[in-house]
Amino acid sequence: MVIDIQERITKIFETGIYYHAALQKYKSQVEGIDYLEKMVMQSSIPAKTDLWNAINLYLIEHHPYKAQQIYFVLAGKAAHTDIPRYVRMMKLDRNLVLSLDILSEAFRNKLSAESLLENYFSVHHLTKGFTVFDEQALADILQKLRPLELIRKNNLLFCNRISCQIDKQSGYISVYYDDKKTSFRQALKWAVAVVGKQDGLTTLSEGKTALTLKSCAGILAAFAFESQRKTLGIGKQQFFKQLCDKYPYETEVGFADTRFITRAQEKIDEIKNVITQFYEINKEDKAREVFSFSEQPQIESLDNVDPHTRLKSALSIYVNYHAWFLADPELFRALYTIRTAIDTDLQGCKRNEAQRNSDLLSILNGMNIFDDPDVAAIKQKYAAVLEKLNELSPGFKSWGYFFCEDFVPSLPGTIVLFSQLKKSCGDDFSQLTHADISPEKIHIDLKKAIVINMLLPQQNMFTAAGYGAGNPAKIVPHNNKEDVVGNIQAALDLFDGHLLRHYLSHVTLDNKLKKLEELLWGMHYHYEKAWGAVKITDDKCLQQIDAWYDEPVSVSRFQQGKKSARELINSFMLPMKNAGGH
Question: Residue 114 and residue 120: Cα distance in Å, rounded?
């Protein structure tokens, strides 16, 4: 509880610092808001609050039609004044897309730099130098600073960067933004944060050292000095003396002389640079857009995915394949019987081995491309049996890829590959390169793993989406329209060229190769137990595995692998029963 209160207090003051840094950076725009507020208050318009609310809605709306409709309303309310024209010009020039409520002079006065500094030192006093945090003792201060907490909680510093519209029927997402101040990529990034209700300030400062409660002191004091310098004409030395006289205990550390103001100002400038990255357009992004939008999105190459991710994802897919296989023995024993019978019948046809294998694949996959009447007759012979098989797994008909070692590597073959790579790339695979897993070096084609994964029941569906370039940014879900945030993120990943890597990371069962190795051993045991010609025991299985390595494998790791493999097999059983199959 103590840590929670400390973190809560820290976030409040951090929010106040970013708020004041933004006000300083866009000082002229804040002054423009003050001028607008005076225009409204001094006008003869009766419903001033309604007009102010309409202006606010217009300034933060990015959908052009909606913005135009709102503008017509406010123009009607402020007829025969310069307010509509001024507001329209303000919208064109505005970077600081905060709500007018938190930019108004009254709100700024309530959260002035001086009041924040005073509250900060009060917290310092009540917590005995930030050592003892008592929520009850801090209740009054927390209440005073509640507006800052709400700014953070509701993402008010950044939520108006974009406007989002979702078609519930199709799942299509439209992200509207100001393309003069926001790049396509920035729009997608902020849409993820806004729609996902993420902490925008955390997103903003993710690349920087987070502010600690103690580091806020000098920054808040520097803001207070700047305010008093402008209003009272006070100098650094006078401000420093007054500060130390008023807060002698609180300024014992970090306030040796006026140089603290210079140090704090450097930190403020750093924060302003961070703010710039999000309130202003990223020119590099914009240059990329011109190139990217002029061409079709490029298909990502596996060569751009690091070799560790490629290997771990492929091993995970092979393990998942065998887990599903062992989770539904009735289905796959029936499939094996049918496959063997069809293959036997095809051997009676005048076809070479390549043609026969192609025919077997086509029959099992429910395809109708047979020019040989004998093959067509065999397909017809097994049509009813295959239909019953399809009923066991509705919507899935790619049975030809099972019991096909050319397509899915055997567990022994996969374990042998693992052993060989450990020899050449080090026990931790630290020396693994793309060349080590190329078809020229290994007997297993890892590229097929992605296709194999498409055959498996989707326990945790990976969200994929395409995008339409321009403003609005159009996001088109491929498979999971309910996951709005996931679809926007997928479109961003596609634009960045990271979607394939994220997909492969998503299907990876464990980032530790040793854990995947254990899973392979355990899955081999369970496979031999269910399908092996000879009754398997732990000792026999360990003897088989040891033969593929230079040294005996760890018995305890083997036992852990058996346990993990069984849990994985069991995880495939429930989805199969609930979904009726695939």
Answer: 10
Q: Quick check: 12 pLDDT over 90?
A: yes
Domain-embedded: residue 400 = no
- In 107-118, which positions are buried (b, 16+ CB within 10 angstroms) versus exposed (e)? ebeebebbebbb
Q: Which residue has the tokens 């940014």?
A: 473
Distance CA 301, CA 499 (A): 11
Q: Provide Rg for the chain, Cα atoms.
A: 33
The separation between the first and the last C-alpha atoms of the chain, rounded to the nearest angstrom, is 46
Helix or strand (DSSP H, E) at 468: strand 465-468
| Identity of residue 126 | L
Burial class (CB in 10 A: 0-12, 13-18, 19+), 133: buried
pTM attached to this predicted model: 0.76
Q: What six digits make up the tokens of 302? A: 């596996």
Contact 423, 464 (CB under 8 A): no
Report residue 359: phi and psi, to 5°.
-65, -40
Q: Rounded to an integer, what distance in angstroms lies between the CA atom of residue 225 and that of residue 122? A: 18
Both tokens assigned to 221: 């004091």
Among 6, 14, 13, 5, which residue's Cα sits nearest to residue 145? 13
As a whole number, mean pLDDT of residues 123-142 equals: 93
Cis, peptide link before residue 472, omega less than 30° from 0: yes
> The sheet that has 465-468: what strands, in order across it?
162-166, 173-177, 473-477, 465-468
Q: Which of 358, 463, 458, 442 is nearest to 400 (CA)?
A: 358
DSSP 517-536: HHHHHHHHHHHHHHH-SS--
Phi–psi pair at 368, nearest 5 degrees:
-120, 75
The tens digit of pLDDT for each residue in 250-277 reads 888 888 888 989 999 999 999 999 888 8
Handedness of CA 345, 346, 349, 353 (dihedral sign): negative
Tally of structural domains, the chain: 1
Separation between Cα atoms, residue 29 and residue 23, nearest integer Å? 8
What DSSP state is assigned to residue 161? Answer: G
Please report how the helices 236-246 and 216-232 are oriented relative to each other, as an axis angle in degrees rounded to 10. 120
Top mean pLDDT of 29-33, 306-310, 568-572, 574-578 is at 29-33
For residue 42, is it within any domain? yes
Mean pLDDT over 20-39 rounds to 96
3-class secondary-structure state, position 301: coil
Tokens in use for 168? 């519930």
For residue 438, is it within any domain? no
Q: Name the residue range of residue 11's domain.
A: 2-110
DSSP for 286-297, written as a single string: HHHHHHHHTSPP
Contact 154, 439 (CB under 8 A): no
CA quadruple 255, 257, 261, 262: dihedral sign = negative
Tell me if residue 4 falls in helix, strand or coil: helix
> Residues 6 or more apart from 582 whose CB is under 8 A from it?
393, 394, 395, 396, 457
For residues 562, 565, 570, 576, the Cα torsion angle rounded to the nearest 10 degrees is -150
| Residue 123 is assigned to a structural domain of this protein | no
pLDDT digit string, tens, across residues 513-565: 899 999 999 999 999 999 888 899 999 999 999 999 999 999 999 999 999 99
In this predicted structure, what is the pLDDT of residue 254? 82
Specify which residues 468 forms β-bridges with: 474
Q: Return the pLDDT at 268.
A: 94
